[in-house]
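seq:
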Amino acid sequence: MGKAISERLYFSFQRNYGMVVKVARFHNIFGPEGSWDNGKEKAPAAVCRKVAQAANGGKIEIWGDGKQTRSFLYIDECLEAVRRLMDSKDFHGPVNIGSEEMVTINHLAEIAMEIAGKKLTIKHIDGPLGVRGRNSDNKLIKEKLGWAPSLPLRTGWKRLMLG
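struct:
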């Protein structure tokens, strides 16, 4: 609720005071320089860390049954979308910036294991799950700014894991 109210407040400043406002709604952005191990990391960084630290043949823990779905966008793609939004003259948003490529958390872990060349077991444990599924609807940003993600998740994931 706080985000929606903030957007309305900023747009009222635009209407009343001529302040230029652009609003983007980010959906699971990942890449280097993101939080890695402080408890605030996103799923890609947490899974990366778990896979990197596990001995081959070991196990990693995933909260819930791992069937929660999410979409993830590599930071370079996000920056391109933000640049287009900031350069737009007549479009202010709000606009979603994310990927429409949905994966389960289990599949995300399997991709990480494949890239790392490790065979690991996933142990499902109790923990916060959030919503069962979440995805970015990019119709508006494609229509208004001509932007859509071009990197598949696996490509961004390799960049994150292999540097």
